[in-house]
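Let's practice the habit of predicting before peeking. Look at the sequence and jot down your guess about where helices and strands might fall. Then scroll down.
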Amino acid sequence: MNNFYPIPQPDLSYTITSAIGIGVMLLICTLLGFLSRKKSVTFETFLSGHQDIGPVITGLALAATWLSGWATLGMMGVTYAVGWSGMWFAGIWTIVGIMPCLFFTGEKMQKYAEKFGAKTVPDVLRIRFDSKIVQFLSALIMIFFMTLYAVGQFKAGATIWYAVTGLPALWCLLLSGIIVFIYMIVGGYTGTQWSLALQGALLGIACFVLGIVSIFFVGGPSELNAKLSTQDIKLLDLIRRDLPAVGNTQLFSSPVGIIATFFIFLTMATGFPHNVARFLGMKKLTKKDFSLITLMVFLVAGPPIFLNAITGLISRATFGPEILNIQPWKGDLAAPYLAIVAGGKPLTVLYTTGVFAAALSTLSAMVMVMAGNVTKDIIYTFKPNISKNLLLKLTKVFIGIFLLIPFYWTFKKPPALLAVFMGYASIGLGSIFIFCTAVSFYWKRATSTGAILCMLYGVIATLIGSIFVFKQKLGMGTLEFIVLIGCGIFYFVGSLLTKPLSEEKLKQLFEK
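Done guessing? Here is the structure:
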């Protein structure tokens, strides 16, 4: 007979202390926003600052936008549900994904901001392809997919709040959304970047501490596996061949799905617009600076997140499968409940605040990108005579709109399993922009026609393919390859069949 821990019940003292922890974090973020307000007084500086942000802040901010509620909460829901086979999707490839973004994309984005005055990622694409159509289309696609991804951030915050209070998360998340709105509209890009850095440091510490404490709590790796095997020996399998090789479970049950997880992480980290936008406000880096930014990313996105993914397994060993019956949160409650029983109040406060930091960091980065997409890449592209002061005001209005949409969606119909839901948006965004941004920085032959065909195919293939995955007619890993390979074919063939930019323009773009 298994002796599982009972599901933690709401405790008023935990609620109060967790609320204080979240409140202090949000207060500091708000102060950072106000301290940055003088650097965000014009439309251009509001969108991308003054290109003076150093490696430590940039590195922490990049790690924060990369990890999100997915890494600090959703990953553990996967390993809790399926066991060790979920680690492929939940933690192994995390650091592998973000490092190429740093090595291959960061310097190029900084160059486009410094040399050409680029303010947004679509603005970079307009310059690279000399095409307003590319700028406009990429802005629309980013808004669409990032709205889906933003839903996951609100669900992460809602889940952690439910775990420590048992109460609806409406008021807590509404307050958080309001505070995010305040520090974003006051501090703009610079204030958001500094807030992201704080949140990145906080979530890295929280995930690392929870992972270490949990391993000691369960009695070490051998005891963990022993407890899992008493529930179901299949929880120890690295490939769950008993699960369907179609639908979402292909990521855990098939070599095709497991290999696909590597490409999902690689492409989404390097291609995510809210990740690469972190470099637009960065100063030109020296070799020492580059070492520092690499260290910051590794410290937050490396060991802490790998350890955190294992806490889903430890939670399964601790509570059994009971958490899967709690609607609508299910396995996403695995890590918060474990923090309560393994570390008590101090760890619960730290982890609760860390998850909120992770969710809000990615949310704020995405909202800033989407608001800029509308004003800079859509409105200003087609109405260049519009007042910059009006554009600044409109950007702040759209920040509020893009906070409200995912907030409303989360409370009407939250996704069942956070990491899997966000995976669909990751497939689309990553497969499209790995080519249109990262590859285009190095391949001179790329043309606007190739980029446009790549974007159109990526959206259509992701939407249609997701329906087939949902209906168990196609595996999620197979969908990744269909979208990624198809985007590559359209990008390269479309470019090779059309005329590239002039030699003069290419020289300007590619010269050292």
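How did you do? The CA atoms of residues 444 and 503 lie 10 Å apart.
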